TrEMBL record:
Thiazole kinase involved in thiamine salvage pathway. Keywords: ATP-binding, Kinase, Magnesium, Metal-binding, Nucleotide-binding, Thiamine biosynthesis, Transferase. This is Hydroxyethylthiazole kinase. The keyword Metal-binding applies. It comes from Populus trichocarpa. NCBIfam families: PRK09355.1. GO terms for biological process: thiamine diphosphate biosynthetic process; thiamine salvage. Pathway: Cofactor biosynthesis; thiamine diphosphate biosynthesis; 4-methyl-5-(2-phosphoethyl)-thiazole from 5-(2-hydroxyethyl)-4-methylthiazole: step 1/1. Its EC number is 2.7.1.50. It is an enzyme of class 2 (transferase).
Length: 280
């Protein structure tokens, strides 16, 4: 075997072992993940966390933040169905989580679609998220702090188009930035890795992006000091579950069911044989 191929194989084996180790920790520890999220995604996010082994809490009332949020293991904030009434709770939860030393993850859904949404997302970015996960258009909008072409929550940019924007955003925010796409990109502003797992039909199921952000929160909860590796591992694990689900699915509805089942039943052999992560 050529040395370069040997190094790639060793790198894959290392990533696969790390991803499996984190999933095993997640299943053992069942971290409590608070999700302040949108009405469309609550069900799939909660079921994704449960099937992976985490404990979801869909608590978004500001009256509960001071009592509840200090006891969580990670926080996921998703602005999908954003309204002025929810913003104070998002801000408060991010501040409380940061003060308690708990990681929090931001999903800036359709960040560039309106001035209200962009301003809210930029304010949340300023509250020190550990990870920001979005599609290409969302990450470009945050990086440039500008409104842009968007099709609602759908991206009008491929993930690779957003690589420089992701690096810039990571450097300015201090967060790990993940860009979902045909290849998922994860960067700390310097190092860049790509996750090549998943199937295109996952885009036909609403809230799969929201669900993987919640899974990232769970993975970061069990390894907060290595957020880049935890983020890449969560994306690859979710992608593998989608691939395995697609082997049994007849369309988006059955893929949703089989994806959740595959995530619940995922074993080390599947992770080792299917995981595809590379340096970019």
């Amino acid at each position: 075997m050529e040395p370069s191929n040997l190094n790639k194989e060793q790198d894959q084996n290392s990533w696969a072992l790390n991803a499996w180790t984190l999933l095993s920790k997640l299943r053992d520890q069942s971290p409590l993940i608070q999700c302040i999220t949108n009405f469309v995604s609550m069900d799939l996010m909660a079921n994704t966390l449960l099937s992976a082994g985490a404990s979801p809490a869909m608590i978004h009332s500001i009256e509960e933040i001071q009592d509840f949020t200090p006891h969580i293991h990670a926080l996921c904030i998703n602005v999908g169905t954003l309204s002025p009434a929810w913003l104070p709770a998002m801000r408060e939860a991010a501040l409380v989580a940061d003060k308690a030393g708990k990681p929090w993850i931001l999903d800036p859904v359709a960040a560039g679609a309106s001035r209200f949404r962009l301003k809210a997302c930029l304010e949340l970015v300023g509250l020190k998220p550990s990870v920001i996960r979005g599609n290409g258009s969302e990450i470009i909008a945050l990086s440039k702090a500008s409104l842009g072409a968007t099709k609602g929550v759908d991206s009008s940019h491929e993930s690779m188009d957003a690589m420089e924007a992701a690096k810039s955003l990571a450097q300015s925010s201090g967060a790990i930035v993940a860009v979902s796409g045909a290849v998922d990109i994860i960067t700390d502003g310097h190092r860049v890795v790509g996750v090549h797992n998943g199937v295109s039909m996952m885009q036909k199921i609403t809230a799969t992006g929201c669900a993987v952000t919640a899974l990232i929160a769970a993975f970061v909860a069990v390894d907060p000091l290595h957020a880049l590796e935890a983020t890449a591992s969560a994306l690859s694990i979710f992608g593998i579950a989608g691939e395995m689900g697609m082997d049994m699915a007849k369309g988006p509805a059955s893929l949703r069911m089989h994806l959740i089942d595959s995530l619940y039943n995922l074993d080390q052999a599947a992770v080792s044989s299917r995981l595809k992560v590379s340096s970019l």
